[in-house]
Amino acid sequence: MPTPPRRVPLNLKPPTKKTERGALLWSILKRLAEFAKPYQGLIVFTLILTVLGSFTAQVNAFVLRYTIDTLTDIAKLPSPWQAGIKLLTLISVILLVKEVLNAGISFGQRYFGERIRINLSRDLSQKVVERILTYRMAFYTSDENDSGKLQTRIDLGVSSLTSLVQNFFIDMLPLFASAIVSLVIMFSANFWVGMVGLIIVPIYFYISQKQANRLQGFRREMRRYRETKSGLVISIISSITVIKSFVREPIESDKHWAIQEDMTTNQLRIRSIAFIYDALKSFIEQIGVVAIIVLTAYFVLSGEMTIGMIMFHVLLFQNVAAPIRQLHRIYDQINNALTYAEGFFDIIDDDDQIETTGTLECTNLKGHIELKHVDFSYPNGKQALHDVSFAIHPNRITALVGLSGAGKSTIINLLVKFYDPSHGTICLDGHNLQEYNTHNLREQIGLVLQKNHIFSGTIKENITYGDMQASKAQIMAAAQKASIHEQIMQLPDGYDSEAKSLSGGQQQRIALARMFLKDPPIVFLDEPTASLDAIASQQIKHSLDLIKQDRTVIIVSHNIAQIIDADDLVVIEDGRVVETGTHEDLYAQHGKYYDIFNAMSDNLNLDKISATLQSQHAVNDVSD
């Protein structure tokens, strides 16, 4: 495959300063402590098992020293075999008993540590989902929070935090506890040998820290690549019809290849740096082993130590060096936590994104809506509405008319409180819309969009989303109003069939049934029949006529029949209200509505339709 053009490198944040990184780490640990608080008992028990395990880890060193020193004495006896067998039996029993105890302690320590990790993973995932459900729509429409990037930030944030906990409780804590105990024993046996073990520790820390600093920028870059790749894959899947219809598979493949190439280069760079530092740390460790052997050999030759002390100190030093060898893993996990957890907690802590709500309860809504000098700009800076003012009267049908992109759907979004106006006010029954309790308000509003989401699950479950307490009879009645009941009953599993298996038009009617079941006093219809064929649209029209009765209805449509049925019309052009009135009045003005209506009529080819109908009527008259 030819090498695609080189991508422009992503803009990366500069490496975090050491003091800032330390403060950030402390902040993350405090946040983790909040989530770990319910598991204090498990944590304490795990720590106790860890301490016990650190002592059992030293048994081998003591047994080996005793064995070598005792065998040295036994070898001098005239008949050493009997004493040798007793010694070997004794140390075998000790080591086997130690191993049984250590297996039980290790199992408990690892099991409860893993239990803490799994519980924290569950709680972190649940917390972020509960949190983002409270955020306003602007959060989801931001480029930084598109579905691919947001999912990657959440998944990697949870995995890095839980991996940090796993490495601490399951992998690193037992090793460090053993290292501390081993170092204390080394000092108690001989100060100078203990100093050799102690001096190695800061050298390892320094090398591991340098390794972490070198890799920090690469890890941040890898995070950006992963987010971009995830977003690209999701985009390919969602756009596959367009990609195939334009035969653009090679272009999309090249885009993915470019990201993969950069990721591969970055990963190889990370691994090469890690290999260099690992080799350096291994070399430092061997210097420590050589120093201990030389030093203990000197003390043996001086008569200050037995031969067994050589292996005794070497094994203890290995216990000290074991966790030090893994320091890069700790730094890796810490830096992963800093890289990914920062973004994860940014999601949880974004209080500015919490959806605003008032305290006024919605009772006996009339549906009198008034927009006063409303301006609105989307998060990307595009101004969609300019000084919009008009009124929607109770128990009447108001149609928002205009070309695509005029701002009709934006007005619907404001009325449902998906967004707040940048300037101006929206009043409902004389109260500012912001004063109403948001959840309570939406319970009184029915919303049907041009493309409604169908959840994974059965048809019954999707319809009952409109009223979770609805009976089977109510569900079926709602489906009948939406003209979908008969088609559902023809399915092998009826209402228990998978909703995702339905066609687009059928799914639209499921969404309508959901709204019928909700039975709200205010209804917003945004192109409700856009996905339906002519016959289905005609069937739905009767249902829509029923639900429009004695309700306040706001409809956005390019369907000429639905526009004519409206009591009031609001014509919008480029985010501004240019005309308001009835169909007859606006058509007589020969203004913007006149142009739009005539364009719709021409598009329907009404002259030919009228001629066809007249011809058919003439045939019917003759036959009569």
Give a description of the structure.
By secondary structure, the protein is of the alpha/beta class. It folds into 2 domains: 18-353, ABC transporter type 1, transmembrane domain (ABC transporter transmembrane region fold); 369-597, Rossmann fold (3-Layer(aba) Sandwich), CATH 3.40.50. The protein is 65% helix and 9% strand. It is built from 22 helices and 10 strands. It has helices at 18-36, 40-56, 59-74, 81-132, 137-141, 147-189, 191-238, 240-245, 249-301, 308-325, 327-348, 408-415, 438-443, 459-463, 472-481, 485-489, 504-518, 534-548, 560-565, 583-589, 592-604, 606-623, and strands at residues 369-377, 383-392, 397-401, 423-428, 431-432, 445-448, 522-526, 552-556, 568-573, 576-581. The strands form 2 sheets. The chain has a 6-stranded mixed beta sheet, sandwiched between helices. Helix 2 crosses helix 6 (147-189), helix 7 (191-238) packs antiparallel against helix 9 (249-301) and helix 7 (191-238) runs parallel beside helix 10 (308-325). The protein is elongated, with a radius of gyration of 37 Å. The protein starts with 17 loop residues before the first helix and ends with a helix.
